[in-house]
Design a protein that fits this description.
Number of helices: 2
Number of domains: 1
Strand content: 25-35%
Largest sheet: 5 strands, antiparallel
Order of helices and strands: EEHEEHE
Radius of gyration: 12 Å
CATH architecture: 2-Layer Sandwich
Oligomer: single chain
CATH topology: Alpha-Beta Plaits
């Protein structure tokens, strides 16, 4: 897995995978909270949060607005440090 935001494919309808760095996650509950909030964003098809690394991988139909991602992470009680 690469540690950067990147489109997987430039074709129409292709999904985009982005990896974000989130601070404050320490356990499975933290992972669930972040996953739950990010899953509610429009276009998101998959979220995988890993507390041990602080990395959250998000697969979506189109690139996500960073402000929306930040707001979702904040709502979960954590801080978006940026892309990983």
């Amino acid at each position: 897995m690469t540690a950067q935001s990147k489109p997987q494919n430039a074709e129409a309808g292709a999904e985009v995978t982005a990896v974000y760095q989130v601070t404050g996650m320490t356990c499975g509950h933290c992972e669930s909270a972040v996953t739950g909030e990010l899953s509610e964003l429009a276009g998101v098809s998959s979220v995988k949060a890993v507390a041990a690394t602080g990395q959250v991988t998000v697969v979506s139909a189109a690139p996500l607005d960073e402000a929306a991602v930040r707001a979702a992470v904040d709502e979960a009680g954590y801080e978006l440090a940026g892309t990983a």
